Structure formats: C-alpha cells, structure tokens
Amino acid sequence: MLPHLLPSRRDFSGDDLIFTLNAAAQRRAAGGASVINATVGALLDDAGKLVVLESVMQQWRQLTPMEVAPYAPIAGDPAFLLALTQRHWPSLTSYGIGVATPGGSGALALTLRNLLERGNTLVTAAPYWGPYATIAAEGGVRIATVPYPAPGEALDVGAWEQAMRDVLDEQGRLLLWLNDPCHNPTGRSFTRADRETLLSVLRDIASQGPVTLLLDLAYLDYARDPQAVTEALEDYAAFGAEGSVLVGASLSLSKAFTLYGSRAGALVFPWAADKALQSALVTSCRGTWSNCARAPMSVLSRFSKDADAQAALAAEHAQWRTVLTARAEALDAALRAEGLPGAAWDGGFFVTLAAADPQVVTERLQERDVFVVPMPEGLRVGICGMRAADAPRFAAAYKASL
C-alpha cells in the first residue's frame, strides 16, 4: 500500500469478497465440480449464460453515429431523464430536478455530496446492498441502520422513528435511503401498511428539519406482482407531491435493460423545482464523471417513441419475472421440505437466509460446492443465477451447514 493512501480507501467493503467467492465457484466448476453459484448479481439463464434482452439489443443495433459519439449534456439528455422518470411514474410530465448518472450507484453518491456533509450519517435498512458501505465511506458519511421487517412482521416503527429522530437531532438534516419495492438483498417489499406508517413518521419528523427520502429503485421490472409495484410508486408519488419531505429516486437501466456495462441511470426529484439543487447536482456531475454515455440514453429515447419495442420489452420482462418466481418458489418449497423456514420473495435478484454465523455457514456450504455471500444479517442468495432444479440440493446443503 502506498504510504499516503488513507486507511478508508484500502478496500471495497465486501465487493472483493463477492468477486473472490464468484471466482472460486468458477474455478470449481471449471474443474468439473457440480457447482451452485448463488454469488452472482446479474440475471443468468438456466444454462448459466448472461441474459441479454433482445428487444434492447435491437434498439442498440439501430443507433446512428450521432446517437453514440457526441458528448451528452453534463446533466444528461432531458429526453432521457423524462423517459426514465416516466418508466416509473407514467403520468408525470416533468422529471423535476435531475441529472444523468453512471447507474444507480452514481445517483446514490450524488445525494451524499449534496444533501449531507462529511461526517454526517445517513439512515438505511439492514441488511443492505453491500456497496452502500463503499459509497458512504467514499463520501465520508456514516451509516445508521434500522431493521428491515422480518417476513410476516410489521415495520418496527419505534426503532425507525427513534433512529431517524436521533440523526436529525444530531445533524439538523436527515437522508433516508429506502430500497423499496424489491429490496436488495431480502427480495421482499414493504406492505402498504408499513409504507403508510413510514411516510406518516417522515411527515411528522420533517417539522424538525429538512428530510430527504431517496428511493433506490433497481429491480422493479422483476417483481412477482407488478401491480403491487405500481401501487407503491403511486403512494410515493402522492407523498412527494405533498412537499413536506424532499422525495427523490435513484433510477437505473442496469437491471431493467440488462445493460450492466453501459452504466446508465439518473438521480431525479420529480416533485421539486429548486434551481439551486439542480445547479449543485450539475456541478457534482462535472466534478466527478463530467457527463455520462450517450448511447444508453439514446436507446431509452428510442423506446419511448416505439410502442412495438415497448411491448417486446414488456414481454421479455414478463418471461424473466416468471423464471425468477419459479426459482423463488422452488427454493421456498425445498427449504420447507427440509423442515426449515422458507424464503419469502416479492421481487428482485436475491433472497436472504438466516445463519447464526454467516461466515462459518458459507465455508461449510463451499465444501459442498454451494457458494453464497455472507452478510452480518445472514446469507445473500442470488436466485438470479440459480436454476429452480438446484433448489433441493441447495436446501439440503444449507440445512447440513447450519
């Protein structure tokens, strides 16, 4: 390590572990072992091949040089920002305040740069997506966690309210990152009652100081029940329109379009009109990535004008929702057949399973050629990379490893 490198920049807060586990699984498979690799974070078919949506690739292949080569505006193409916002809230006619970002992670990072100060604390639910810790450390921000509701249990409103009030009292402002619906890594979503409870608390504590709710929306196209997603987004829209809390969203095409490598996303505040916030976000864009790739913006803009392409994309999403639902249900049934609690799942690429000592259980699973990612709260299992047919073997190995 270079002597002038700060200690906080030494590691990737869990990313290295995932890469290491994935590489180990691939080596075992290459050596002829029958491996279940549930470490991956991208959608794979039953042959283990990366899923690439053909409807998206058709639009990509039609891009002209001028839809690819020129610099995009620093804030992003306004048509792209509107189209991406309208994928989530079709009735909106404006994206409000917003900028293009390199994926959802870029959007999250911008909220730390502009809505908190170094040394401040953000609030999010645990377990959470591992790179949250990396993004927070890079931004000089601490993370305070609140418990994600257990399957079948209501939101612990007392714990959530206390944690948020404590942070707001300490630093005079509150930023809540909320990954809902289709929470990563639990694979579950808030009930409507939980959502209404949380929004009521946020509405109340906003009288103490500025509160921002940032919705991290990455997996919505892969929900078991699309109507439940629509209802959740409508609830958040109504809350954002009230204006008591600044409501924004981290939006991404990575999973929705299987364009992981194009790094296309946005940070939008659809119900805001603060020009100072817009200026601050643009300044941060210029001071970090300068501007984002034009090609994926052009792809989405093409989709927004082509009803047939939209229908083809919707059909592909429906197909892969069906596959993921079958995988989740197979795992749930296999676990229950072993006398274990099932794996509740509402959408997304993962489920979380309990483990008293996640690291030890992970190592025992590896001895059986089953690879998962340990977290403080349990095991992250990527059903996005598992076959439904592997569920019985996975469940048996998990039970034997507890």
TrEMBL record:
Its cofactor is pyridoxal 5'-phosphate. GO terms for molecular function: identical protein binding; pyridoxal phosphate binding; transaminase activity. Pfam families: Aminotran_1_2 (PF00155). Keywords: Aminotransferase, Pyridoxal phosphate, Transferase. SUPFAM superfamilies: PLP-dependent transferases. Signal peptide: none annotated. Gene3D superfamilies: Aspartate Aminotransferase, domain 1, Type I PLP-dependent aspartate aminotransferase-like (Major domain). InterPro entries: Aminotransferase_I/II_large, Asp_trans, PyrdxlP-dep_Trfase, PyrdxlP-dep_Trfase_major, PyrdxlP-dep_Trfase_small. Coiled coil: none annotated. One of its GO terms (biological process) is amino acid metabolic process. Residues 35-396 form the Aminotransferase class I/classII large domain. Belongs to the class-I pyridoxal-phosphate-dependent aminotransferase family. Homodimer. PANTHER family: ASPARTATE AMINOTRANSFERASE, ASPARTATE AMINOTRANSFERASE, MITOCHONDRIAL. This is Aminotransferase class I/classII large domain-containing protein. It comes from Gemmatimonas aurantiaca. The lineage of its organism: Bacteria, Pseudomonadati, Gemmatimonadota, Gemmatimonadia, Gemmatimonadales.
